[in-house]
Design goal:
The complex is a heterotetramer, with two copies of chain A and two copies of chain B.
Chain A lengths: L7 E3 L2 E3 L3 E3 L20 E2 L16 E4 L2 E4 L8 H13 L5 E2 L1 E2 L4 H12 L7 E4 L16 H14 L4 E4 L7 H10 L4 E4 L3 E4 L1 E2 L4 E2 L5 E5 L4 H12 L6 E4 L5 H9 L4 E4 L2 H4 L3 H15 L18 H9 L1
Parallel strand pairs in A: 3-17, 4-7, 8-9, 9-10, 10-11, 11-16, 16-17
Antiparallel strand pairs in A: 1-2, 5-6, 6-15, 12-15, 13-14
Helix pairs in contact in A: 2-3, 3-4, 6-8
Chain B lengths: L2 H13 L6 E11 L4 E7 L3 H4 L5 E4 L12 E4 L2 E3 L4 E7 L3 H7 L6 E8 L11 E7 L2 H14 L3 E8 L8 H6 L3 E6 L7 H15 L3 E5 L2 H14 L3 E4 L15 E6 L2 E6 L6 E3 L7
Parallel strand pairs in B: 8-9, 8-11, 9-10, 11-12
Antiparallel strand pairs in B: 1-2, 1-7, 2-6, 3-4, 3-7, 5-6, 12-15, 13-14
The complex binds flavin-adenine dinucleotide (2 copies), flavin mononucleotide (FMN) (2 copies) and FE2/S2 (inorganic) cluster (2 copies).
């Protein structure tokens, strides 16, 4: 038998399946472990206009079911990225979505218009949510107006699909998502890492060189899943869910909460073949449940209970 | 490897079959060697053959989702291609290594590797000096073995807290290395004392290169000796890792390369670096 | 040798040690496992003026290193609480801090003046942060003005020490903490649970009867610790840290981040003797490090690095 | 127990010594009984003596921080006061029970209990009927044992998917109970068929009380039979738990008590409830 149809559409981009790596958790060496063309899309580490070194070490600390990182945005600059990194992706068929990062809306727009000229680039993820760049973890995506302003500039600078990557450190993720939608984003990516920290009790110092960092991994999944669910009830553009996914089951929870596609981050570090396992597990679930397309389950948990289900639920 | 070659190689890999660097091995044995270290032997086809001294494996210590989230890096302590076996020698320390210590013969072990750049031995060298502290000896052991197989003379200084903590003295001697144990207990491992010892060995024995691993204090001392004596040297560096395969940029440190301070990934550009590139402010 | 002095002061209340149970995670049955008088204080489950049933079941779901709960605030009402529950605590010497919950500032004030008359009550924790009561998890503590308004009313209604329990679901926890301080709170409790959810992929329905719930446990510790650190740099009143503590080491991280005391929540469910173990571990740490008082380490991670430490850190 | 008595008892406990209801036991054995269930015997002083049929223990399945956060509730399957042993029979299902299944003889097990209100057997009863589905049999087994020791006649209907899945038939027969296996395979476990069976047994055998556990469908059917026949009955209810000791209010369900719908804690007011209090909308 042929499997269920895994393809999904985000703006005018059709993905073979809804699984892709999260920005900063994937790069070329993964090709030694899986066929990259098996994925739905590829999102790169965020790149900047200029060369940046990133934060001082230590950059990592492990927490219960989580990873705390303060990598920052080390970047070779967009010109070197075009010259040295893009050729690798030109040889692939899977759509490439560079993630871009900048300190101002104008620099975001500049990056967008530079990258638009590269035929291998099929869309842009706009990282307005990195918690490490500015004071005390503030970022554009903590505020609906800032988000509108930056996404609007990017929208005007390019005709490429634009994905806005949101922050979970705001209390108004729904308003921010709506602002991104109004500004013309083709999708919202929910979400980046949660601002967090750890202290070494022997030295009595923060464990990270940068003091605070971003928390990722299974620990944050219930929080981000809730945000996807809330955003899904409000926006009409597709949502890409990202946070703590390490199994097909996790990915399916996101789809049922209303995400059209998902990204796998930290789990790529634990299991380099993880994304391929997630795709296989998704296919398996759909076949077991007699679904012909993954699209049948998107948003399934959003609809109110039917009478019959209600009965079954309480009786079960 | 230049950027261009790296790109070309990756494209090639993508087009052809995928490397088998993520594998499930089977634990053959996992025994205490003293009250803090364990020696684990894992059977896994094909990987001993391609492992180099100084390279490491990234081990999943827990089972399924129980246990720490991340893998743990462990140097190859010994490779046995004939039996398809990889050996690890590890300090039972925190959550990850404690779970590792629970594995028994017959249990599966999920491992990624071999990873990183190992030690290099120049064929023109005749005598090398290796300085190992504690479990750092695990990382340096296969280097000593290969050097001896290539008939180089090897001096090994083994440093530990007490004579009982000295590991590998017999093993290295059996390979034909000259072993010099030093301990905190009798003060012979004291940095200044050790430095005189190293300099004396270098001066009398026509040492061609220096090797060490892990300890920041030892590395700095050896780097200084190497620079003063104009000798090449290599060090296996440790840093906290997430991916171990060059993707996360979490393991970077500042090194001095080509006259510039650059962030390099310990897992990818290392873990072995030229001694003179090491920067300790 | 005699141990280190574990006592700390919060407002005019001196606690024998900085360890107490978090609201809703402790009640009378714990007396069968530990001597309650060994603790620094006792905080009750939040009580309301009237009788409430709480949320419909299921009320619990386990997540990686976390617990998702949507208990709500089942309450026997303050009168029954006084008649039936307070006598139990009257027999103890450890200070009792009832947690109070209400839908309006006036009801909070009413609760405060009713409880003030009970001599066994030594302070009040004002739960303005429960994510389950109102729409989409909103709560007073998500907003500095609302926080000021409610805490002010409580402050005017009682001369008891007032602790404001803050929410981690706000992006402005520092402003909210400052508002509580200005309103006259004697301490801020940082923080309640993070709004989250989980979906059962077989039924395609939210796992909790209430759809969303509050995430607690080790998973959230790095996030709440960061908030304590940020709040500690801003306020002058004591902070009580709460989130994911399950060891003396976790508790010490909070103290070093600037908390004067800590609460243990979910871990009481895992290890009924957990709080006593935390106290013992703290004592052990202080002795090992030659500290004569726990107060020496409060805020230790807040001060900038000294030159010598900086050197040691980078060289280590 | 009234509120007042509870308060008095707790104060008493606080004043005197602390109960030893959190203990570290030692696993004696942990064996498969079929391809899904395991039988674990744990040695722990003093607890078998105070455990009642229907009570449960709260087990820490992982080791240290590895494994699921929460404990897992397990009924007492057998208590052996002479040997200081508690037995559990459990379905190896998810993360927690899979970790439990890995314990070997000699391993420690952290357990809290016995907890909750167990079954009560009225001394005037002469014949009781027990209906168990699958692993629910573990919860009911000590009840059957006690009833037989008190020389009551016991009818036990054991329901399972296939004849091979029927557990305890021999065990119960050896105690002198009358065992009636029913299976999905031959349709005899079908709810309507089962109901006729139960009614026939009740009618012919002068049954004094009904007992069951777990399954919602069985419970509803038995409750209806009990009400129609005017018989008392008890059911051991399962609900997800956090604390297991009455603190978190996470395990509550709505029961009909004293003419009112009330939230009761399964871990504290239960897990055993009168059949007529069970509410299934
Ligand atoms: C390339 C490399 C090779 C290594 N080879 C060996 C070896 O052969 N034998 C051996 O005993 N040890 C070796 N180590 C160190 C070993 O990885 C750590 O001791 C181990 O990760 C500790 O894990 P844990 O969970 O038991 O300890 P914990 O202290 O609980 O670990 C906590 C966290 O710190 C990290 N961590 C702790 N110590 C180190 C360290 N020194 N380096 C990197 N991360 C660390 C862990 O990965 C984890 O994220 C090597 C490290 C590296 C980087
Ligand atoms: C009072 C009581 C007595 C029990 N006695 C037995 C027994 O004797 N033998 C036996 O095999 N099982 C028994 N159970 C069920 C047993 O607790 C669950 O099967 C077990 O918790 C599953 O854990 P897991 O991690 O393997 O499964 P998972 O499915 O991974 O568990 C996931 C979560 O669901 C909860 N959960 C899953 N199923 C149940 C359930 N039926 N009841 C409560 N929580 C559940 C777990 O606690 C956990 O939080 C009993 C349950 C209760 C409440
Ligand atoms: C090491 C690391 C680096 C990251 N770098 C970036 C980045 O450059 N840009 C970005 O938008 N997100 C970055 N992220 C966030 C991830 O893309 C993702 O949003 C987050 O990790 C949550 O997903 P996860 O729980 O699956 O890891 C990074 C995460 C990690 C762990
Ligand atoms: C089951 C449960 C019930 C809770 N009930 C309350 C409550 O009534 N009032 C309140 O302020 N916080 C309540 N909380 C939040 C805790 O007090 C605490 O802030 C939170 O659990 C974080 O701490 P922890 O990670 O140690 O559990 C509850 C938490 C749990 C798990
Ligand atoms: S550990 Fe990820 S780049 Fe080195
Ligand atoms: S499980 Fe906590 S009250 Fe029952």
């Amino acid at each position: 038998m042929t499997g269920a149809d895994l393809s999904v559409q985000i703006g005018n981009l059709i993905l073979n399946n809804p699984v892709m790596p999260a920005s900063g958790t994937f790069s070329e060496p993964l090709a030694e472990f899986i066929h990259l063309n098996d994925l739905g899309a590829l999102v790169t580490k965020s790149i900047t206009l200029d060369v940046r070194e990133g934060n001082s070490s230590p950059r990592l600390a492990e927490t219960p079911a989580g990873l705390l990182n303060a990598i920052g945005i080390p970047s070779k600059g967009v010109q070197k990225f075009i010259a040295e990194t893009l050729p690798f992706y030109a040889a692939l068929t899977v759509p490439l979505i560079p993630s871009i990062s900048a300190d101002t809306g104008d620099d975001f727009a500049r990056l967008a218009s530079i990258l638009e000229k590269q035929s291998v680039v099929r869309g842009l993820e706009v990282n307005i949510s990195c918690p490490n760049l500015e004071d005390d973890g503030k970022s554009f995506a903590m505020d609906a107006e800032q988000t509108y302003r930056v996404i609007r500039k990017v929208r005007q600078a390019t005709s490429l699909p634009v994905w806005a990557k949101l922050s979970p450190n705001t209390q108004s993720v729904v308003e921010v998502a709506l602002a991104a939608q109004t500004a013309g984003a083709d999708a919202v990516v929910v979400a980046n890492t949660l601002l967090a920290m750890a202290i070494d009790v022997e030295t009595r110092r923060p464990k990270l060189g940068n003091v605070t960092g971003g928390l990722s991994g299974p620990a944050i999944k219930p929080i981000i899943l809730r945000m996807v669910y809330q955003v899904a009830k409000a926006v009409s553009i597709p949502i890409i869910g990202v946070g703590g996914i390490r199994s097909a089951q996790d990915a399916l929870e996101y789809l049922m909460a209303g995400a059209t596609a998902i990204q796998v981050g930290t789990y790529n570090f634990v299991n380099p073949r993880g994304m391929v396992d997630v795709i296989a597990g998704m296919q398996d679930y759909l076949q077991r449940h007699g679904c012909s397309s993954v699209r049948e389950i998107i948003g399934a948990a959003l609809s109110p209970l039917t009478g019959a289900e209600e009965k079954q639920k309480t009786a079960g | 490897m230049s950027q261009r070659t790296e790109v070309r190689r990756a494209i090639e890999v993508e087009r052809q079959a995928i490397d088998v660097r993520q594998a499930i091995g089977v634990v053959v044995s996992n025994d205490w060697v003293n009250d803090r270290y364990k020696h684990m032997t894992v059977c896994v086809p094909g990987l001993a053959q391609v492992s180099q001294p100084g390279q490491f494996f990234h081990l999943l210590c827990g089972v399924a989702s129980a246990g720490p989230l991340l893998r743990r890096p462990m140097s190859v302590y010994k490779m046995d291609p004939l039996r398809n076996e990889i050996h690890f020698l590890y300090h039972v320390k925190g959550e990850g290594t404690q779970l590792l210590a629970q594995r028994q013969g017959g249990d599966p072990l999920d491992l990624v590797g071999p990873l990183g750049q190992g030690f290099t031995l120049n064929s023109r060298w005749h005598r090398v000096l290796v300085v190992a502290r504690g479990v750092g000896m695990a990382t340096l052991a296969p280097l000593v073995a290969v050097a001896r197989r290539r008939e180089m003379a090897v001096d090994v200084i083994l440093s530990a807290r007490t004579p009982r903590d000295i590991l590998g003295a017999r093993e290295f001697a059996a390979m034909g290395a000259h072993v010099f144990p030093v301990t905190d207990e009798d003060g012979s491992s004291d940095l200044a004392t050790l430095q005189s010892r190293v300099e004396a060995l270098v001066d009398q024995g026509q040492t061609d290169a220096l090797f060490t691993c892990g300890s920041a204090r030892l590395t700095r001392m050896l780097r200084d000796v190497a620079i003063r004596r104009g000798l090449p040297g290599q060090v296996a560096v440790e840093e906290h890792m997430a991916c171990g395969i060059g993707m996360c940029q979490g393991c970077t440190r500042v090194f001095r390369r080509d006259g510039k301070d650059v962030h390099l990934r310990v897992c990818q550009e290392g873990p072995v670096f030229p001694l003179e590139e090491v920067v300790y402010p």
